[in-house]
């Protein structure tokens, strides 16, 4: 068993990771490299949409779109998986320009041999409209997205600028049926130092999983760390606080913010 270097900034820190099952390993590794003990508690389940009809229709008419917008790795993976299921090669998209939000989404796109034509400077969807490289009036845009519960701001802003947006469900996200007993006990015993949230939905579903089993005063001594402003807003609404917010809205940025906070805390003890 590898010994943790006690000089690493997060040595002795136990951190709860609430990302979806199968998507938390990269973040756990980033935290472990800084000396943390990372515990996985998936607060999100990603599944196919209730119907493929709208996405299949869009795939059959890809040539009619000017832009494809992808705002998450889930959107990329489910869109291209369905594209291939329908017998299409990813390079059918070459006449269509692609905009993505965030480096991680761009990285997922690269796995299919494609590069984005536009990435907004800030890793949030709102920045996409503000910095869009072309006039949006009359642009026909395909937006594969989560089936329910996603933010509506992006579509509203694109539409307000005159774009014609086809929203199609590409995947669904939901709340797991239960929380592992050992995780609940760790929260009740306050043996977890930091809880991390990488999306508003993970906050919502975490709260749904613990609200009848854990009083909010149990969270008072546990640090709440958020990946960005929208997630922080949900933390404040449901958990009553947010202690750390990343300045770069990525998993690396969240890790960096946690390290900075813990280093400052140690220096003031």
Automatic annotation (TrEMBL):
What is catalysed by this protein? Answer: hydroxymethylbilane = uroporphyrinogen III + H2O
Which EC class does it fall in? Answer: lyase
Q: Which SUPFAM superfamilies match?
A: HemD-like
Keywords (A to Z) from UniProt: Lyase, Porphyrin biosynthesis
Pathway stated in the Swiss-Prot or TrEMBL entry = Porphyrin-containing compound metabolism; protoporphyrin-IX biosynthesis; coproporphyrinogen-III from 5-aminolevulinate: step 3/4
> Do you know which InterPro entries this protein is assigned to?
4pyrrol_syn_uPrphyn_synt_sf, 4pyrrol_synth_uPrphyn_synth, UROS/Hem4
Pfam families documented for this protein: HEM4
ATP-binding found in the keyword field: no
Q: Which residues form the Tetrapyrrole biosynthesis uroporphyrinogen III synthase domain?
A: 26-255
What are the EC numbers?
4.2.1.75
Signal sequence, start to end: none
Q: What does this protein do?
A: Catalyzes cyclization of the linear tetrapyrrole, hydroxymethylbilane, to the macrocyclic uroporphyrinogen III.
Q: Which family does it belong to?
A: Belongs to the uroporphyrinogen-III synthase family.
- Name of the protein in its database record: Uroporphyrinogen-III synthase
